[in-house]
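Our consortium's second objective concerns turning raw sequence data into structural hypotheses that experimental partners can test. To show how far this objective has progressed, the report includes one record in full. It was chosen at random from the queue rather than selected for favorable results. The single chain below, 199 residues long, was entered without modification.
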Amino acid sequence: MNKTARTSEASTQFKMIRTSNIRDGRVDLTDCFSVEREVFVEWNRRGVPRSGDVLLTREAPLGQAGMLLSEAPVFLGQRIMLYRADERHMRPELLLFNFLASHMDRQFRLLGAGALHEHMRVGDGLKLRVHCPPRPQQDALVGEIENGREQSMRLSRLADRQIALLAERRQALITAAVTGQFDVATASGRNVTDGVPTP
C-alpha cells in the first residue's frame, strides 16, 4: 500500500503506528496519530494487529523491531511489517528476540537497498531466517534472554545518566571559567570541581 493514511485533527480511539513508535523491542503508543473509523477499517482490511504481534520497520530506519502489547484499535502506517508467531511452534518473545539479534542485522545488511535511505522490499521480508529451537526448550531460553536484556538495558540507562551528568558538569565548568568563578590558570594540582556550582 503505497499511500499515507488520512489523519484526524481530533483525537480518536483509532491510532496509526509509525516507524518512530517502534524502538528497542517496544511499541510505544503514546505518540500516535489519530484517524477516523473508516480509515482504520480500510487500512486493517487484511487483518487487525493484536497483542503479541512483532512489528518490524523496513525503512526509516531499517531493522527496528518491537512487540505490540496492547489490544487498542491500531493499524500500521507505511514501511512497517507485521509478523505473528504460530505459538504451537514458537513463542512470540523468541520471534522478537530473533529480530533484535546480531544474526538478523547481517540479513538486513544483505537485503537492504538504497544509498541514502536504506530500505527492504516487502517481498524480502519473507526471506528472513529465524532460529527456532524445539518448543519445549523455548521457555527457558526466553527467560534467559529476558534476564540478559534487562541487565543490559539497566547498564545502558546507568551509562546514559552518567553521560548526562558529565555533560552537565562540563557545562558548569565552562560557565564557571567564562564568568571568572573558576581560574583555569591555577587549576593544576587540585580538584577542578572545587568552587564550581553544581547544576
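The partners drew two points from this record. The two ends are 50 Å apart (CA to CA). Helices lie at 37-43, 92-100, 102-111, 135-179. Both points have been shared with the crystallography group to help prioritize constructs.
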